[in-house]
Amino acid sequence: MQYELIPGVIRYLFSLALALLGCAAAANGMLWFESGRPNVQARQAVSILASASEEGLRPENYNAMSLRDAFAATGTGPALPDESLTMLDAALTTAMCRFLTDLHLGRVDPREIEENFSRVGSDKFDASSFLREAVRENRLIDAVRRAVPAAPQYSELRRALVRYRTLADNPETAALWREPLPPLPGRKIEPGESWTALPILTQRLIALGDLPFYTPTPVLYEGDLVRGVEAFQSRHGLESDGIIGKRTFEQLNIAPPDRIRQIELTMERLRWTPFSPSPRLIVINIPGLTLQAYEIGRHDGARINQVLRMKVIIGNAEKTPTPLFDEKMRFIEFSPFWNVPPSIAQKELVPRLRHDPTYFSRQGFEFVSADGQVASALSKENLDKVMRNQMRIRQRPGPLNALGDIKFVFPNNDNIYLHHTPTPRLFLRERRDFSHGCIRVEDPVALARFVLQDVPEWTDEQIRDAMAKGVSSTLRLPEPVRVVIAYNTVEVGEDGRVYFFQDIYGQDHRLDETLRRTAGAQTPSC
Predict the structure, then answer these.
(1) I want to staple 147 with a disulfide (CB 3.0 to 4.6 A). Which of 13, 104, 205, 346 is the partner?
(2) Mind listing the pLDDT tens digit for each residue in 236-248?
(3) DSSP SS3 for 154
(4) Is the whole-model pTM more than 0.85?
């Protein structure tokens, strides 16, 4: 086979690789050929690229099929000229470097979509050196495994991706979503009612694992089928009431290919998430409306163990979404003051106080001047100063304080923190985006115990006493704890089931658009 016979698209790929890597390849020697023939690791590399979809990546982004065909052609027939071998070697090196970079760090800078995570370790991952060392030591497959993100959930999502791809690729199960379910006969279907969609609904729930394989189709919507819908609802962020209303109907009509994309987007995000270095980690998952606390390597090497999980209340999706970033928690404030943010004071609180002056004393508010002077009496003059940013309003500690009786502080530019709430009944809601951006936690004592676990004198009793004292005090943590405000719309539970959450802030949509827009970009990685 001669270079002139190589298809034009491959020739272009070779030329691009030479432009990027020609000098380095010549200086360092070829990685993938021995005596003019592909070596074992070359075959492994083209197989790895062809299987990129297993990692939620696209083989076509790495010219996987073209490289596979080109390398297969070099294994038989007359040997290629050295120039052609050099170009082909450089092309595979470029593709592998790009794949390793995408696998380890992701394809998108999260800041492009306002996910302001610190890129921990991104400056330490040199794909070229990583690849060359792996090939030199004949451990390419192991090196790819080490490049996979160590983030919690990644390996579980990888398995979930295989499962949903099987649903999409199997003609019998794929046919179950070929047409949408028949319309609801009314606004909703309740147990005991009839619906023409019951046969197809039963088969979909069996395929998804929410019903046992042998479940028969009932005449009416009742029994096991209702329980299957309840299981489905619990996996999709819905109230598990067995009633098929608008939101449940919409979720039931989402086909496996769309779920596959949702899993891929979550895997991409996990490549950015700064899970290390830190022995302890707190992750707030915005779509899942949960807080999860992890210990990293505390008892068993580098293993990441979830030790705490609770519900949270997040920023309102339409008006005040919680920003996405990571920082280190450094303080706990017991019986905190609430310093009302100027935007809330000026847009909401001052107008209310002008309309209802008694609200000021009922809620325990006071004015604080720029020099720290406190005024506890409401006056028009002070309200005017608040509107001119010459004075602020704060709420004293107490049972009505908006922060509850504890505040977890991780200093940041958005003035976001974790805190308790005087209205815990809101945790009973399925959708909980009620705040102005800060995050309310369901079990503050458990969270305080987690961040203070290395300080044995801080028992549950002492934490509760400090919260109930009514006198504000601040405790500096002996060791900061990393807090990550993340956005993952898919999660695998401890029960092994796959949970999907609403794209409440539209971030999945933004990420998908960004990835599709940059799909053809050839980013030099070596």
Answers:
(1) 104
(2) 999 999 999 999 9
(3) helix
(4) yes
